[in-house]
Write a structure and sequence with these properties.
The protein is mainly alpha-helical. It has a single domain, classed as Glutathione S-transferase Yfyf (Class Pi), Chain A, domain 2, CATH 1.20.1050.10. The protein is built from five helices and no strands. α2 runs antiparallel to α3 and α2 packs parallel to α4. The longest helix is centred in the N-terminal third of the chain and has 27 residues. The radius of gyration is 15 Å and the shape is elongated.
Length: 109
């Protein structure tokens, strides 16, 4: 947020509703898609001490990731998540780079 506020690229919507929607999208991308989905896939041992359960943990991570990307795909308004290019789009691009490691399909948008 500091970088966005101190940068003239306008990465935060100017209106309060747009800023709130951007923060909502960023929080969902980071806390759900990244932390709950991807972390289960790449670090299943953090979710179970039993190595035999790690494939199930990874599968749950793929489910969370696929559901999250599908939700974000449906919420894209035209080209960007909140109507104009923002920090939320940067966060989404960051996690989308990991999709090939997850062995799931990337949604159309």
């Amino acid at each position: 947020m500091w970088l966005a506020r101190s940068n003239p690229l306008l990465l935060i919507p100017a209106d309060i509703e747009g800023e709130a929607r951007m923060l909502e999208a960023m929080d969902y991308i980071v806390s759900t898609v990244h932390m709950q989905g991807f972390t289960r896939i790449v670090r299943p041992g953090n979710f179970t001490p039993n190595e035999a359960d790690q494939d199930a943990v990874k599968a749950r991570g793929r489910e969370i990731l696929a559901k999250g990307l599908k939700l974000l795909d449906a919420s894209l308004r035209g080209r960007w998540l909140v109507g104009s290019y923002s920090l939320a789009d940067i966060a989404l691009m960051y996690v989308e780079n990991w999709v090939p490691r997850a062995d799931i399909a990337t949604p159309a948008n």
